[in-house]
Model the fold of this input.
Amino acid sequence: MRLTVLGCAGSFPGPESACSSYLVEEDGFRLLVDFGTGALSALQRYASLKSVDAILLTHLHCDHMQDACSYVVVRRYAPDGPYPPVPVYAPSGAPDRLATAYSPDDGPLDDVYTFYGLQPGTFPIGPFTVTVDRVNHPVETYGVRLEAAGRVLAYSADTAPCDALLRLAHGADVFLCEAAYMDGEDNPPDLHMTGREAGEAATKAGVGRLLLTHLVPAWGSEALTYEAAAAAYAGYVEIVRPGARYDI
Ligand SMILES: [Zn+2]
Ligand SMILES: [Zn+2]
Done:
């Protein structure tokens, strides 16, 4: 399994990064996990526009889904298109939400996307065995566990600490976890995690590597987030960068 970080900026795009989007490849199959603002630009560095086989949106906050609207143009109006509908696994409100965000007057996106409503459970997407569960965020949000060829990638999506996240990440080879908040600040509850909380979750779940993501541009400190996570987790910790690739 190969993970490519297309974008990792939390909440809004940064000067060097799109918002959350991760290309996960296995055996030639390309799954896009989240499709945040600016990710369509980054995608073109690593894959042809046509080559996305499936999309999974963890939730419908703009920084995780906005470029699924931009991508409508690509598939619907390509000179060698239109391309066949691509499956989109997303919270149940996705068809209306994306169609409205794309254009309130243009109707449904059924010619571009085949939508599947997420529910907690396990199901296949191409070569991946996918497990999703609701995590602790103000809107319907799913953490993700991807398994293929005996390897496991877990992704927190956006969440505050919760038991579902620990179950999804249990024993994962790689745990891609958000760390949007700074430790020691008066953070709102039930929204995001700090570096320390990400490290604690990694320790409890017994993961192989901790990759921190969704740090918010300009508002926090990468150094302090890293230190806090590394103090709470004895394994390998890294803050991901756009374009970083990991063989899992
Ligand atoms: Zn977010
Ligand atoms: Zn969110």
